[in-house]
Amino acid sequence: MAKKSQIARNAKKVKLVAQYAEKRAALKAAGDWEGLQLLPKNSSPVRVKNRCAITGRGRGYMRTFGLSRIQFREMAREGKIPGVKKASW
To answer: Which of 14, 19, 31, 52 has the smallest number of CB atoms closer than 10 Å to its CB?
Structure first.
């Protein structure tokens, strides 16, 4: 599991991105690059890290499920993810 501080820091970035999304879009449309630079750095969507919803793990993230590869495998094996089953041949 990821450190609580990393998860909290990422949540703070997500909140800032949502707060400044409208203003950022307006500045981009107007071509006001100086105005964009005055916004907080963490309000950029690029700085948000995709993390597992359960453990907070940052690596091995599966975007379609919002889980890390480890949690995906465990939940799929237990049948907790609808439509996913173990392949066998």
So the answer is: 31
Domains of the chain, CATH where assigned:
1-49 (no CATH), 51-89 (4.10.830.10)
Distance CA 89, CA 83 (A): 18
Give the predicted TM-score (pTM) of the model: 0.81
Backbone angle region of 75, left / alpha / beta, with phi > 0 → left and psi within -120 to 50 → alpha: alpha
Whose tokens are 């940052």? That residue is 58
Query: How many angstroms separate the CA atoms of 1 and 3, rounded?
Result: 7
3-state secondary structure of 20: helix
